[in-house]
Structures are given as structure tokens and as C-alpha cells.
Amino acid sequence: MSDANDEGLWIRQYHPAPGSPVRLVCLPHAGGSASFYFPVSRSLSPDVDVLAVQYPGRQDRRHEPMVADIPALSRHVADQLAGWLDKPFALFGHSMGASLAFEVARILRRERDVEPAHLFVSGRRAPSRFRDERVHEEDDDGLIAEMRKLAGTAGSILGDEEMLRMILPAIRNDYRAAETYRYEPGPPLACPVTAFVGADDPKVTVDEARAWGEHTTGDFEFEVFPGGHFYLTDHSAALLERIRGALGVGVAAV
Predict the structure, then answer these.
(1) Which of 3, 75, 173, 213 falls 20 to 30 Å from 251 in CA-CA distance?
(2) Has residue 141 been placed in a domain?
(3) For residues 218 and 129, what is the distance between their CA atoms, to the nearest angstrom?
(4) How many percent of the chain have pLDDT more than 70?
(5) What predicted TM-score, i.e. pTM, was given to this entire model?
(6) In sequence order, which residues have a C-beta less than 8 Å from that of residue 47 and are 6 or more positions away?
(7) Number of independent structural domains in the chain
(8) Is 95 a catalytic site residue?
(9) Would residue 254 count as lying in a domain?
(10) Residue 40 is part of which domain span?
(11) 46 DSSP assignment
């Protein structure tokens, strides 16, 4: 279990919005960090109070031991969110973060009898859809090739040998966590779920993403965007409009 004093390490609040009616907790992709969601926080504030999760083993937490599996990581995140449940909250996760968001929602319902006002999942197949993937077993060159294929890391980083060596351990760790994750069947969630996917995402098919609808008895929405695994970097404005609408906070200022 996480120490409550660790909250400031795990939870980043870039643009506090105490008057907002809802919080959005954002969970990064494999190898990602909380700062990936800085633009989301800036765009949604002050209508939505955005929290971004910082996993151990990267950026300012790079000297901390990494968490090697989704169940353990979801336990840490659920524990750290305990002090942030005083208002309605939603969860957004991209790629590995989507699996993590789902498991966090399950823990909070099971142990605290609360569910998110909305679960947003992006770029990830439904938990009940399995792929035997083993990218985490590749050597460094193989892992870098995968990163280039997904185009999720800035080209300047991919060309910087020192920076690459710094982030590869976190990327490998997270790939291991995502690829060894196994869904344990249980009651579906009751909250609304919205799934987003890129039409040309090599990591998830449209049908695999649409299957998220099987994991809730609540409303389910599904949208396909042009692009690949990181479609959201090119379509952030449209994506945030969908999130605003689902959370009932109106439209963004022009």
C-alpha cells in the first residue's frame, strides 16, 4: 500500500481548479509521464480539475523503483486517489493507462463503493480481448523500433542517445506491465464508458476497442479518429470537446 505522504509524488495538479464540478484523473501510456497531460490540464481548466498521475521511475521519480505490473500499479494509484474523492471524478487513460484506469475503477468500487462519473479509454483493446505481445523481451534496438513505429516519442528524443538510454528502462518496464496484464473476469462497471481509437492503430483494432462496451452496464460511446496509436496528439481539440461534453462542462473557449 502507498504511503499517504507520497501523494505529491504520484498526483500532479498543474492548473488547480477548486471551483470545478468534476475532476479528471489522467493516466499515462507506457513510458509516459504526467507532463504528457499538461496541455490537457491547461485546456480544461478551470471547468475541470485535472490530475495527472506520475509513475515511479521517470522524470523527477527516475531514481525510484518502478512498478512492474498493472495490479500493483493500480493499487498504488487507487490508494493515492483516496484524498481526491470529495467531488465527482472521471478517469482517462491512454494505451497502458486505459487498462490501469479500468483496474483503478474496479478497486475504488470494490473497496470504497465509489465509481467514476465517467471512464474514458483510449488506444487500448478491451480487457477481455487478449493479444500475446512480447515487445518487452526485445533488445534495445527492437524496443526503439517499436517506439518509432508508434510515433509516440518526439523525434528529437529518438535521436538523442543519452536521453534514450535514460528512458528505455521505464519504457521496457511499462511494456512488460501492459503485455503481462491479464483480465480477471468480474462484474461490469456501472459508469458510462467512452472508448477512443485511431483508425490505423497497430496496437488495437476497431473491434477490439469497441469491445469496451462489454465492461459496463452504463452508457457506452465509441469514436474512431483518423491516425495511429497517438492519434490524440493530432486531434486533441476534438478529443477534449468530446470529454467536455461527456462531463457536462460545455464547450471550450475559442
Answers:
(1) 213
(2) yes
(3) 20
(4) 90
(5) 0.91
(6) 17, 20, 244, 249, 250
(7) 1
(8) yes
(9) no
(10) 4-247
(11) T
Categorise residue 227: left if φ over 0, alpha if ψ from -120 to 50, beta otherwise: left
CA dist 229 and 48 (Å) reads 25
| Element of type H or E holding 89 | strand 89-94
| C-alpha to C-alpha distance for 39 and 237, rounded to whole angstroms | 10
Span 86-138, pLDDT tens digits: 999 999 999 999 999 999 999 999 999 999 999 999 999 999 998 878 778 67
Residue from 61, 55, 92, 79 nearest 174 by CA:
55
Pull the grid cell for residue 167: 528512458
Q: What is the CA radius of gyration of the chain?
A: 17
Q: Is the peptide bond before 46 cis (omega within 30 degrees of 0)?
A: yes
Q: How far apart (Å, rounded) are the C-alpha atoms in residues 234 and 81?
A: 30
Q: Does the residue 253 lie in any domain?
A: no
Given 41, 43, 95, 99, the catalytic residue: 95
CA distances from 175 to 123, 198, 211 (A): 14, 20, 22
- Residue 73 sits in a domain whose CATH number is 3.40.50.1820
Distance, in Å, from the CA atom of 252 to the CA atom of 106, rounded to the nearest integer, reads 31
